[in-house]
Write a structure and sequence with these properties.
alpha+beta, 331 residues, globular
Length: 331
């Protein structure tokens, strides 16, 4: 064989090796490219869906800003507060027969932009407080029945001397659907108990004590029950459930579930946040470990005119006011 033939064969082998190498690279890159393109398309569709959902859920509270603010805040730059109002619109609830639902859960969240931290203060539903909407003291749960989200916001601001910049109102259907769409949450149930489900079917939910996976109905049951303790403990559990949902929602396994989660929330939510304002909170979930601290009020049971109320401890109330004011960097 001539030297030129050897050179030709050598070049051919090199070309074949390069060709195989290119094929191997393409074999790896093509699926990655498809995955990337697919994820990008998914993300675009997700954003479009989220924007539509936010637009449909938007409901102005009639204020340009809180009266406790000198000027309007921008969540992309400022520390802000959000009042989460959980309502039970079930037709089975007696108080809803008139069409005016009470708030079954109230949690004020303050968000600090500098350190991406969140503080959650649970307010017991039977707290005896002044309600500006009607001009007298009553259970804070009644504020929503008297005047919806606006009356509830005014009551919370009067109680805590903290501006409520935005509100998010969710009914229990959203709670159940979101947990189910995320594939459930892990939660340490404190004791065995029976509880009604979201349709008010008595004792439909039966949970045992211990850490376990909860579906939507079970998570709702642990968030609303107070048969074996009290409203304070229920408030603490609601905070822990929120943290469990947040942890699950920010996990990698939940990324491709957001589509259904957004749909579940959108059907059961109203909020004074616009879509652009919502996007400002993305940094809280992408800056590393999200620092969430839970706060609680304490007090004593009290009876007035044979009606039960929860009397808040003034000292603990003032301590929590101070914590929230400092977190929002208020003067």
């Amino acid at each position: 064989m001539s030297k030129s033939d050897n050179n030709i064969r050598s070049e051919r082998r090199k070309r074949n090796k390069k060709s195989k190498k290119r094929k191997r690279i393409l074999f790896i890159l093509v699926p990655l490219a498809l995955l990337l393109i697919g994820s990008t398309v998914y993300a675009v569709n997700l954003v479009n869906k989220a924007e539509t959902t936010a637009a449909n859920s938007y409901e102005s509270d009639g204020r340009e800003k809180s009266e406790l603010r000198d000027e309007a805040v921008d969540p992309s730059e400022d520390h802000v507060s959000i009042l989460f109002i959980g309502v039970d619109d079930s037709e089975h609830r007696e108080e809803n027969n008139s069409g005016a639902s009470r708030s079954d859960a109230l949690i004020l969240a303050t968000l600090n932009k500098d350190d991406s931290s969140v503080k959650l203060l649970s307010i017991p539903r039977d707290s005896y407080v002044y309600i500006p909407e009607v001009g007298y003291e009553d259970k804070i749960t009644h504020a929503h029945a008297f005047g919806g989200a606006t009356a509830t916001i005014e009551t919370v601001e009067n109680l805590l001397d903290i501006p409520v910049d935005y509100y998010v109102r969710l009914n229990f259907n959203a709670f159940v659907d979101v947990v189910d769409e995320l594939g459930g949450i892990t939660f340490d149930v404190p004791y065995e108990f029976y509880e009604s489900n979201s349709a008010d079917e008595k004792n439909a939910i039966h949970l045992f004590a211990g850490e376990q996976e909860l579906d939507g109905e079970e998570a709702l049951a642990i968030a609303r029950t107070r048969k074996l303790d009290n409203d304070l403990e229920r408030g603490k559990r609601q905070q822990e459930v929120i943290k469990a949902i947040a942890n699950k929602a920010t996990s990698l396994s939940s990324v491709f579930k957001y589509d259904n989660v957004i749909e579940a929330v959108g059907d059961n939510m109203s909020t004074s946040l616009t879509f652009d304002q919502m996007k400002s909170f993305i940094s809280y979930g992408t800056s590393g470990d999200l620092d969430i601290e839970t706060l609680n009020l304490t007090g004593n049971d009290m009876m007035l005119n044979e009606i039960y109320y929860f009397g808040l401890d003034d000292t603990v109330l003032e301590e929590n006011k101070q914590i929230l004011q400092e977190h929002l960097d208020l003067d």
